[in-house]
Amino acid sequence: MIEVTYPETKTVEQTDDYHGTMVADPYRWLEADTAQAVEEWVKTQNQATFDYLEKIPYREKIEERLTELVNYPRYTSPFRAGEYYFFYKNDGLQNQSVIYIQKGLEGEPEVFIDPNALSRDGTVAINIIGISQDDKYIAYSQSEAGSDWSQIRVMEIAGKKQLPDVLKWVKFSGAGWHKDGFFYSRYPEPRSGEELSGNNLYHSVYYHKLGDDQSRDKLVYEDRQNPNMYHFCSVTEDGKYLILNAAPGTDGYATYYKNLETDGDFVPLFEGYDHKSNVVDHVNGKFLALTDIDAPKYRLVEIDPKNPAKENWKEIIPESEDLLQSVATGGGKLFANYLKNATDRFYQLDYDGGNKKEIDLPGLGSAGGFSGKKEDKILFYTFTSFTYPNTIFKYDLATGQSELFNKTSLQFNPEDYVEKQIFYKSKDGTPVSMFIVHKKDLKMDGKNPCYLYAYGGFNISLTPSFSATRIVLLENGGVFAMPNLRGGGEYGEEWHKAGMLLNKQNVFDDFIAAGEYLIAEQYTSKEKLAIAGGSNGGLLVGAAMTQRPDLFAVALPAVGVMDMLRYHLFTVGKGWIPEYGSSDDPANFKNLLSYSPLHNIKDGVTYPSTLITTGDHDDRVVPAHSFKFAAQLQKSHNGKNPVIIRIETRAGHGAGKPIAKVLEEQADIWSFFFYNTNSPVKYLKG
Q: What is the CB neighbour count within 10 angstroms for residue 445?
């Protein structure tokens, strides 16, 4: 057993009064992420963590194996801009994927933007966020060190020429092109020192004209009365309307439209914040919208803005027993994406909902794509499952036939593994679906290491996907399990609501029941069971390990929301109030306190071996959550199980993390997992 010596973490006298309940917060000082004392704490914690991890005998071999597994070319589906096609490609071990351009589908690909050339450590990430209506320019976002902050820049497509335009202090924005510029969303410049932790207020919409300095951008929409609101905008394909979604947080939102031909005022299309309604297209003076109004599993309706009342809506795709997850357009057709037991189905339809036909996918798994412009004749889509590496297909609109376009060269034999879906009962009897993946010949004797991963929140659906790094688990006799917990979006809005706000405990009960099922069915044992999740999934792990510390051998909370009483005071945390509730409200405070991971750690309890991971540039779930949780857990934990925190420098919430950092982190996680489940590690070179 490797010994770990924890650095001493000082405490401060800090107590807060929540509606008459006094709550101590002795590690409040760790919230000051830029303070020298906190930076020193990070260094000492990392030193203790890496001293421990480096003593795991096979850690280096695991990183070597991960490097082998990840070192294969990976592509995204092409997307068209005029006579050019764009796609992303990673040769294998490039820190960031490179954006390529080619003329037509037969043209020679050329590098358009290489993010790897923009930084020494590979932490600059690039994403194309909008193409001009005349197909001459692209707008792209550029972020650094994992931060949600980004800059918007512009390039000329044909000449691959960089324009001087640079727009700063942008978060959560696309680029809705209109005439010789585009609409985008941004925040005011934050105060110095608060860039990564300060409360972001007044998310507003601007119009930028190409060539202008950002100071000349025109303010299009702001809400001075409600500074917490988010505002997202897009332009309809016909260029006639600007669509604005106004959201108090991550759940419901209002939708407005603005006539760009007359430069009129914003007009409400969907008022209030209790529902989610997206404008899919504008055709012949009518809006097509996907909505959950009177349809928790969603439907597509046609709305005449001259008679927008609900009784005048025309139903194009009615609600069904399966979740209508999205509707896209391309080639003058609609493409409806249904989720049936957390696996994708796609159908092609006419704009009036007629001529519905199912598109044959390679199997049960996850698919995405089927989107383009009205004049497109060819569309692309991707398909993947737990044992089917991400593959790109070309879809011919005239024939309805799919053709393999790009298959991964990864040396992986899906025939060696089995993936299945089972249903188990949660604490209250609710049936919950779960995917399980393992070697075909694996014995179910309770001795297999098992990695139980979930999310359970924000209406997000977890569906089958392939991961090269997961092969390390599977080829070493491990079991991968992924349940579709309440709070997610897999079964519609009612499933989501059953795991939010005062119903949040259902999510933890579902997760705990998944672990109990895996043990009862002898997939694993409590000495071999690990739980993992990130962000809201990190909260899930924190809550489960504090409620049932006896059930799990290993806990792997990543970038988790651990302080449920103060989460809304940092950066964009207030946006999660519709999902969690706020400690400012007495009823919600009581509920939040009942499961907040930080506040439910008890002295003298033996907790699972715990590896907490976060990034020092995480400005979504600020690292103070993980800092305070680690400090309290190290103080209170009784036993020899290690409790360590791995703090990645120049890294954020996960997006844009360089491959080099991903491989190092994954090697540490799998090493910790195998070592603390006492599982043998061997490698089959392939």
A: 10
